[in-house]
Amino acid sequence: MTSVVRERWLQTLSAARLQPIASTQPGRSAVVMLDADLAHRALSALEDTEDGAAAEMARAEIRAGAPTTALADLVAELR
User: What residue segments make up the domains of the chain, in order of their start?
Assistant: First the structure.
């Protein structure tokens, strides 16, 4: 890697630690580079949101009369 390319890469990494940087291809965003801690927190928040939505969907199905299984029955079945 040439020194100019290496220096530019290090500058990009430093900038991405401060705020997300989007790399684009013609007409669309292709990749986003961001601080690793921020990425982990964002993914965790997304997973929490998806888990909450799935739980709400399950509650709605139960309210609509979907069959359920007692915990004791589930434990017995898994043994």
Answer: 3-78
User: Does 73 have pLDDT greater than 80?
Assistant: yes
d(CA 58, CA 44) in angstroms, rounded, equals: 21
Give 2's pLDDT tier (boundaries 50, 70, 90): confident
Report the alpha-carbon distance of residue 48 to residue 50 in Å, rounded. Answer: 5
Q: Is the dihedral of CA 12, 16, 18, 19 positive or negative?
A: positive
Distance CA 30, CA 68 (A): 44
C-alpha angle 50-60-48 in degrees, rounded to nearest 5: 15
* pTM of the complete model: 0.63
State how far the Cα of 50 lies from the Cα of 35, in Å rounded to an integer: 23
What CA–CA distance (Å, rounded) separates 45 from 57? 18
The predicted pLDDT at position 1 comes to: 62
